[in-house]
Amino acid sequence: CTGVFSRNVYCKASNAPSVLNTDLSACEAAGLTSPRTTRNCEAECNFCDTPASSCSGHGTCDETLFDDAGGCLCETGFTGDFCESATVCATGEKMDRNGDCCARNTIDKSGDCCDGVIINGVCCAGSKNACNQCCEDGDTECESMVKSMSGECCMDDQLDAASECCVSDEDDVELDSCGVCGGDGSTCAVGFAASEAVADETCNDFTWNDVIEAEYQD
Fold first, then answer.
1. Most buried one in 48, 163, 167, 189, CB count within 10 A?
2. pTM recorded for the entire structure
3. Torsion angle, alpha carbons of 63, 64, 65, 69, to 10
């Protein structure tokens, strides 16, 4: 095969032959011409003498393959010049369109392995919030989104007492202390009267206890 032969060239002073200098400028300044450091050559070579002979860890190198040029003999389940592609994935894995096995058994709608989560067929590299949205790592605002009873999405601190989103184009609309959207807090404590009937000792007639006052939250 065709290759390149290379050698190191040094500059040294005649009065100090043991001192070698890789900086050739001193010799060139003295009018000396540097010899060639490389030349083309024809030599016998084999694939198994190259770093690629590892065959991606999924095969062995055979010097006799391809007219003694050498090549990879792949293990069962792998293919390619360097045994770089799997033909059969392990149990619980799937192969994507590039021949790669997905360790997490997730392939997006484009056919590629996804290292994150799949949302509506699209690979999300971050996390999924309650609204089925993709959030980048560290995006706390996105991660705190919630879904109301009617299916609307909003921040978790925008849910009213009825679990509906309190969101409006008007800046002054917000939750009051009772959790009422647009309320003024006046409905937080409302009194009501309740009567309780109890039987007397003979269980024949009923008498009424005093009215019981109770407070409740709207």
1. 48
2. 0.41
3. 60
